[in-house]
């Protein structure tokens, strides 16, 4: 192929791969059921390389899919239209930790956990902690606006991105923002690129905001007889003006599966558990943990365990941390969703998810970030069982509709990707979709950036159930 | 005029004004030297009214300028192309304070201070505090992404906007976001509308994030012999991992002018002052104030005064609060700028501003938000003195160039408006401007929304001085 030879000539044959094994390895991400072969994989060493690739792809109308570690759960990094997958393994450096301005500047391939450790060594803190952070990259986190367990108190990735260098599809370099607490020079392009899922430009450098590392942290686990008392606890903690660093939820089904998997002595006769953490100055943490402890008991917690030390805290966190792994071993295919609702609607949302599971005769376990209203209903299924997969898809459509009905959204932290593209219009309406398509066109007139993501060929028809819609 | 009669018919003659007095009153904002007569003023009572106005203006290509209280300092709310000024006096309600989800939902005409007071009465806190908050509206704050004194610790308006209802130029209603801590369904249209200066759509409702009201607050004032020791103090406080709620700066010239105006006993033989505040839990505030006190002394502060009580704190804050009023009385025209640099560059930036003032023989006093690197170099001049005004303009161009040279921006919190439109390309480059124009086109194909703002007919030529650019 002509463009491929030109690619090799421009950026070097050592960073262009077209062998079947490599292509296969880049044909999928962490999402079940989405796979397509790319024509080539390129691993640029510099912004100039990225410019050269994009210029060429722009000219020849070749699709480009930027990819970090491909932990995406919405099919966002699959090369559905073929073309070039761009891998950032060579652009993974931490370029600067600026202790005067409390910023860190990195290349997109930098592993999130490496960054977190590097800044912690200097007494600084990068709060976003997606579950995949040990392998996910900052470029991927920015492209997806990744959340994590600390979202309620500390916000998400977007809240820490101060400046970006990005290459536009035509090869031009765009610089947005700066090491600045305030910048209102025009539209917020930084924030527009964050969460744009590789559909607008390729991020080649990012400057992130850091904050002082909290002095200490305390961990607590509480069991509840039923969902409602756990949900009431969540609401009342916030109403009492305590904003915990972590406020995680697991339903009965998840607890059972985790215990069956790990045998760690979780009680399986409970209805729900909450994992609560607070960080900050020692006295504040003590007070907040006491306050949360009191609310748990007032709302009828069956038991509450406060960690004695960090080792004990690790065991309390363990159940939540392995939830997905435990669920994943139940069956060949695990589908993890992230419908999100206002915090006050968590109990209602979980009830609706349970009802939907019963209606479609599928097993749904739900866990997630209760403080954020960000739930992960998870289905253990088998992609080869087409009949069941159809029921699963119909159930998820109902779950999205339920989340929207409660004032929520179809995705809290995983992104739209290919998987939720048909549902995006449910959230945004035709006017919102039109505006987004216009924005896409402004950046990417030939539609080469991560095609078939975010925008569906056709929106799903939404079947409105009951009186509300 | 045909469209005006149609306007009266559609939304009622009682909310359409075309008399010369009203038109004159809406011909300017708080920016000196920008004035133009609108053809009509409309004061919608509902989203439906806004839709009707926009549909009509879209059809007849009539410019629309949304306007809150017109405290804008960049000519952003002047009807430079005539047309309709939209006034939100009738849409000023607080619709809901949601204590479960910690949100407040308001109409755009709501006065910022009213909102702040209403939520404080419930133990909640809306941190953004632009200096104009006693008269400015939330709609204006959102359109400009207003900052304030608490930006360093708490962020700016954008950090508190969770959801928007906005009317597109064609009359369609757009709903973005939700009462959600996390939402990644497509591009971040909420954030794109925040700071868009009325050039994309008309905001008709906003849901804002609230946080618990801090337990207490402490205030401290420190004098320094020279600029550098004050700037070093700012840097060292942050390096010591203390993020104060307020970290304000006034230079020698500003101190002199304030003392001459208010006679409050400020020492005029000092080089700079810092106003420092911390809020939060009592113990944390005490520790942080002690830590900041120690840094001030280590860096050679001439004196440090810690407020004994709230009344004393008010007197310490007074000098900073009246700085602009004091400067404004010096001469007929006061031009307040807001070039912003990384925090570490404050001393250098103030030195460059002083040098620029000398070079153009104009008086520049500088004060501002030192913790944010957000400085307000202020010139007392006379708009009728054209020769001096030319020097002032040239000086400001040099100030913007200096800010950019130091990694900063042309506007930290005032917006681009008409005043800085010719300089926007200096910050964004041609690629950034092109992308922004494409975004503008996606929302507003006929260019009716607040024309002549943000995008200049022609960019200023930038004269690069010295070796760096």
Automatic annotation (TrEMBL), chains A, B:
> A single Gene Ontology molecular function, please?
oxidoreductase activity
Q: One short Pfam family name for this protein?
A: FAD_binding_4
Q: Which keywords, in A-to-Z order, does the entry hold?
A: FAD, Flavoprotein, Oxidoreductase
Per the entry, which co-factors are needed?
Answer: FAD
Tell me where in this chain the FAD-binding PCMH-type domain is found.
34-213
Keyword Chaperone listed: no
PROSITE patterns in alphabetical order: FAD_PCMH
Family, per entry:
Belongs to the FAD-binding oxidoreductase/transferase type 4 family.
Stated name of the protein: FAD-binding PCMH-type domain-containing protein
């Amino acid at each position: 192929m002509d463009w491929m030879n030109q690619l090799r000539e421009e950026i070097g044959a050592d960073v262009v791969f077209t062998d079947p094994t490599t292509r296969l390895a880049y044909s999928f991400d962490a999402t079940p059921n989405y796979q397509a072969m790319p024509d080539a994989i390129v691993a640029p060493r510099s912004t100039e390389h990225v410019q050269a690739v994009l210029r060429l792809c722009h000219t020849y109308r070749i699709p480009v899919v930027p990819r970090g570690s491909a932990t995406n759960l919405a099919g966002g990094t699959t090369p559905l239209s073929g073309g070039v997958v761009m891998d950032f393994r060579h652009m993974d450096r931490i370029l600067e930790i600026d202790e005067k301005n409390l910023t860190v500047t990195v290349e997109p391939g930098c592993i999130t956990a490496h960054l977190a450790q590097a800044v912690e060594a200097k007494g600084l803190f990068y709060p976003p902690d997606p579950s995949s952070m040990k392998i996910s990259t900052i470029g991927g986190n920015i492209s997806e606006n990744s959340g994590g367990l600390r979202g309620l108190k500390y916000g998400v990735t977007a809240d820490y991105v101060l400046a970006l260098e990005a290459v536009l599809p035509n090869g031009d370099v765009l610089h947005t923002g700066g090491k600045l607490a305030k910048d209102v020079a025009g539209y917020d392009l930084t924030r527009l690129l964050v969460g744009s899922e590789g559909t607008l430009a390729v991020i080649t450098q990012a400057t992130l905001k850091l904050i002082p590392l909290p002095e200490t942290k305390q961990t607590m686990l509480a069991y509840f007889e039923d969902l409602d008392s756990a949900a009431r606890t969540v609401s009342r903690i916030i109403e009492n003006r305590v904003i915990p660093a972590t406020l995680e939820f697991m339903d009965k089904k998840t607890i059972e599966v985790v215990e069956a998997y790990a045998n760690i002595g979780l009680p399986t006769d409970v209805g729900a558990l909450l994992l609560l953490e607070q960080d900050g100055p020692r006295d504040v943490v003590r007070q907040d943990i006491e306050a949360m402890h009191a609310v748990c008991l007032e709302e009828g917690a069956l038991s509450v365990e406060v960690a004695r030390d960090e080792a004990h805290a690790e065991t309390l966190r363990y159940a939540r941390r392995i939830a997905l792994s435990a669920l994943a071993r139940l069956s060949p295919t695990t589908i993890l969703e992230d419908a999100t609702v206002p915090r006050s609607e968590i109990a209602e949302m979980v009830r609706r998810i349970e009802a939907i599971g019963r209606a479609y005769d599928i097993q749904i376990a739900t866990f997630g970030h209760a403080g954020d209203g960000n739930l992960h209903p998870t289905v253990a299924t088998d992609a080869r069982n087409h009949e069941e997969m159809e029921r699963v898809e119909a159930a998820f459509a109902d779950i999205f509709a339920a989340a929207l009905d409660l004032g929520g959204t179809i995705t809290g932290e995983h992104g739209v990707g290919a998987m939720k593209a048909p549902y995006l219009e449910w959230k945004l309406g035709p006017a919102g979709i039109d505006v987004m398509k216009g924005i896409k066109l402004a950046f990417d007139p030939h539609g080469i950036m991560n095609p078939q993501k975010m925008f569906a060929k056709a929106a799903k028809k939404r079947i409105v159930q009951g009186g509300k819609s």
